[in-house]
Specification:
Elements (H helix, E strand, L loop, with lengths): L4 E7 L6 H9 L6 E7 L6 H11 L3 E5 L5 H11 L4 E4 L5 E2 L3 H11 L3 E11 L6 H12 L3 H7 L12 E3 H6 L10 H11 L3 E13 L5 H4 L5 H17 L4 E5 L3 H12 L6 E3 L9 E2 L2 E4 L9 E6 L5 H11 L8 E4 L1
Parallel strand pairs: 1-2, 1-4, 2-3, 6-8, 9-10, 9-13, 10-12, 13-14
Antiparallel strand pairs: 4-7, 5-8, 6-7, 11-12
Organism: Polyangium spumosum
Protein name: Glycosyltransferase
Keywords: Transferase
């Protein structure tokens, strides 16, 4: 039987967790799958584990790249895959029962969706700090396509190893790319820019393992500045299509960094807004800092770029009171 879902699992030196990760995926029996396990330069027992499992289960397809990095390893898995849906997994995470079937159902039910993730549970507890717990709680609260549209420029709204992609959408936006910011966030932004929806199954269906060796802790592409550059790169064309003056709400570090990145992409802020009365009347990056009362949705397109916890929701209320509509007259970033 031809696979309905191709599961892409790149790995390197993951022998300690790989068998458990593969067992979770291979337990899926309701959906025809193939599992493309890509050895990206391992020096441990990982490839032997995959080879052993492949002799027992024809759904396991061993591949090797020699150590080219995750984006290129994923590209190799994509090139070898056959199914209309592409699921992701990492070699140290645990996929929970029913995940793939529910994601297929979600993609089939809504032709606009290009990618569907799930809620996730980070583990082990000792590796989950306050910042990660807050990020996962934010991510898990974003479920519908409308939620993802609203939050796409705040942070990466999907956990990469939890997602399933519609092949047609994925290939239409250029598949995996090796970029100087996170490759997964780049893909979500490209899908969004092309008009494809992002959503989640409203259930926790992946256990997301964390440890000090994760790429997010050591790879320069995951630095905060790289995320800001990615947002600016995809925001700038959207801003250029709007004739209104660009205003950045936030004259502090977050707003200044975003405005600097936007200027590098050709989108210069005409003004900043801040609630601190000491800042009003000054300038930031050569533009005036004004009060919120100066804003007019017929003349201004607003980017909310603030770092204080809870500030975005307060500003959303302020802008709604000024008759600004989110997604049309303002966007929230971070």
């Amino acid at each position: 039987m031809s696979p309905l879902v191709s599961v892409l699992i790149p790995y390197r030196d993951a022998g300690a967790t790989l068998e458990e990760a593969l067992a979770g995926i291979l337990a899926e029996r309701e959906v025809p799958i193939e599992v493309l396990a890509v050895d990206d330069g391992s020096t441990d027992a990982g490839p032997a584990i995959v080879a052993r499992l492949a002799t027992r289960d024809a759904r396991v397809v061993p591949l090797a790249t020699g150590g080219v990095g995750i984006a290129r390893a994923l590209a190799a898995a994509h090139a070898a895959s056959r199914a209309p849906f592409l699921a992701r997994m990492d070699a140290d995470d645990i996929s929970l029962p029913g995940r793939l079937g529910l994601q297929v159902d979600a993609l089939r039910a809504n032709a606009r969706l290009g990618v569907v993730g799930t809620r996730v549970e980070p583990f082990p507890d000792e590796a989950v700090g306050e910042g990660l717990a807050r990020y996962v709680a934010w991510q898990n609260a974003i479920v519908t396509a409308e939620d993802h549209d609203r939050e796409i420029y705040v942070e990466a709204p999907l956990c990469h190893p939890s997602v399933m992609l519609r092949r047609e959408a994925f290939e239409a936006v250029g598949a995996f790319r090796d970029v100087h910011w996170p490759e997964d966030y780049d893909l979500w932004l490209r899908l969004h820019a092309a008009g494809f929806g992002l959503a989640k199954v409203d259930r926790t269906l992946l256990r997301w393992r964390h440890h000090p060796g994760r790429a997010t802790f050591r790879d320069g592409r995951y630095a905060i500045q790289r995320f800001i550059e990615a947002k600016a790169h995809y925001l700038a064309p959207r801003l250029a299509r709007d004739p209104r003056a660009l205003v950045v709400w936030g004259a502090g570090p977050t707003g200044r960094k975003l405005s600097r990145a936007l200027a590098a992409e050709g989108a210069k802020a005409a003004a900043f807004v801040d609630i601190d009365p000491k800042k009003i009347g000054r300038t930031a990056r050569g533009a005036p800092i004004t009060a919120k009362t100066s804003l007019d949705p017929t003349r201004h397109l607003v980017l909310v770029a603030v770092g204080a916890r809870g500030a975005r929701d307060l500003i959303r209320k302020d802008l709604a009171a000024l008759v600004f509509v989110e997604g049309r007259d303002f966007f929230c970033c971070s």
